[in-house]
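Reading a protein record of the kind used here takes only a little practice. Each token is a code from a learned vocabulary of local backbone shapes. With that in mind, consider the following protein and its fold in token form:
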Amino acid sequence: MPVAVAGSIALTLTAAPAHAATADAPRSVGPLAVVPQPVHATAATVTAAHAATAVPAVTVVATQAAPATYTVVRGDTVSRIAARFGLRTADVLALNGLGWSSVIYPGQVLKLTAAGAAAPAAPTAPAAPSAGAGSYTVQRGDTISSIARRLGVTTNAVLSANGLGWSSIIYPGQRISIPGAAAPAASAPAAPATPAPPPAAAPSAGGAAYTIVAGDTISAIAKRHGVTVSAVLAANGLSMSSIICPGQTITVPATQPSIPGLTAEQVANAQLIVRIGRELGVPDRGIAIALGTAMQESSLRNVTWGDRDSLGLFQQRPSYGWGTEAEVQDAARATRAFFGGAGDPNGARTRGLLDIPGWQNLTFTQAAQAVQISAYPDAYAKWEAPAASWLAAIG
């Protein structure tokens, strides 16, 4: 069976190399949020069980000044090295041309600042934008999706231009490349005024836009609007460990449709699958196949357990390249990986529905099995009719 980003790159002295992806990675943040003053999406008020999985509060720790380079020693991981010097893991990876599945070894020399690179650029400055591209300085409240929308480019294009993933985090003052956009005028060197909040995102059908204020939690917002926490998470591609920030705009869905036989959690996950399918331009039959597959694999629940290392909504397996444990339990990311195609967060590592030649001509069961490679290939057939009715109810 078949995936936010691993928190560290493991290091060992054994003959077998240590891999970048480890189980201690934080779950993804989606959309890519600026986190100057994080407000957790979950709070103790959600449920005691959810509180156990919530992202812990940020703790300020003393860090050493970052040298230009660092020599790896036994027991090191990239995330620990970054934390020791007050750096972001993603920045250290980028400086060294590493990925989340890369391997580091004792004696390896890593660059920790831009000064350690060939060009002595300022530590926080990214590579110069490519020809025909512009750059943008991230402001408080920005997300990659809101920046892309504002500048008339796609979110995927901005992610690719900056080596970011769906679970990456951006921060105020960071400069990012905007492909195919004219560079905005340079700002005055004087201290800028507090930027205006980003424009409100257009709410999804049947939903309303809401701008986060200090002290908000997803559970409080959901309660205030009379909807479930799962529905709000699903409508915004968030997970129980996501972080929300003041100034961020989210969609508060209308009252969930009542679907006989499905719980509120199942309906919310079904809505997530349908929303992402629509965003990717997947035909209705493909969305129905995804709904039926998720029902067979997890009962349309984002579970934290499964056969061997299978996890999440589609029971995707980290050992088969579907992502880290945190990534395959990110319901939005797992759904994109199931659909595959140009927006596949796994790239060519895994094959989604849209990557299967002639999938439209396969039976419901054959199409689901081509993605899942299940030991029980006929099990999906029974969900074909129910999946079609769920899709009709959600719209």
Q: What stands out?
A: The two ends are 29 Å apart (CA to CA). Confidence is low (pLDDT under 50) at residues 1-62, 116-132, 181-205. DSSP finds 13 helices and eight strands in the chain. Strands lie at 39-40, 69-71, 109-111, 134-137, 175-178, 208-211, 243-244, 249-252.
